[in-house]
Amino acid sequence: MSSPVPTLVREYMTPSVVSVSPDTTLVDVLRTINQHNVSSVLVKGAADAPLGVVSITDLLRVAKKREDEEEGGKRPLPLMPPGLRASDVVRRDLVTVAASAPVGEAAQKMLERSVHRVFVTEGDRVVGVFSTRDALRVVLFRHVETPLRDVMTKPVATVGIGETIDAALEKLDDSNLRGLAVVDIKVPVGIFTQLEAIKARALPSRLRERPVEEVMSYETTYLDVSTPLYRAAGHGIATEVRRILVTEQRALAGIVTGYDLAKVLI
Length: 266
Description:
With 266 residues, this protein is α/β, with parallel strands linked by helices. It folds into two domains: 9-142, CBS-domain, CATH 3.10.580; 148-265, CBS-domain (Roll), CATH 3.10.580.10. Helix content is 35%, strand content 23%. It has helices spanning 9-12, 26-36, 56-69, 86-89, 103-113, 132-142, 165-175, 194-201, 229-239, 258-265; strands at residues 19-20, 40-44, 50-55, 96-98, 117-122, 125-131, 158-160, 179-184, 187-193, 221-224, 244-248, 251-256. Helix 9 links the parallel strand 10 and strand 11 (244-248). Helix 3 packs parallel to helix 8, helix 5 (103-113) crosses helix 10 (258-265) and helix 6 (132-142) packs across helix 9. The longest helix is centred in the N-terminal third of the chain and has 14 residues, at 56-69. The two termini are 21 Å apart.
């Protein structure tokens, strides 16, 4: 019996790549990431040559450093230092995969490099991107019936709905993760991601004493542990979320991220 034909990256990649120039201010980089709901942008130089990438993680480091350098914390800060540009923080170790490669190779690179997307190349050109969202489409197409309980990550880093914004920022820093689940006792009610953290770090210190509920994101999906992975993928595609909070009898049991999906494709 012949081996199944591998699913190629070019079949599921997103051909449009969100990009900025080296001179783009970090304020505009953040705005671009927010508008397009992506986790990073490609930095292009002359003749559209790829120079590197700026991610939301890079911007959070800038926001934290800026906050640490300020004194008092009584006045609001700009979301990003106005003088910094993409060229100041760009990481030039671009993670790429050939368009002709199987999707498993793209998934392997995402796991090895701890990134949510790899840039797709043909020769010297970047022709698309393969992200965790594209991985969702592969899972849906393959009709993967594995239940969420078998692939979810647990335990989940959490913050209580009544805890302060400062407490959420501290927990996010300590966990070295891209997001925390916000829970009401054991029931998940939202998510506190790096994007919320950047906005929160611009707040005066007195406002960061307010409950994290006031700044958390509601843009997440809650599914039972028995849900087949292909159905979870369908929900993720429809809602454009990056994390699926997994529940058992309404209580938070785990989380499924792009990295958990990538493991399924290898």
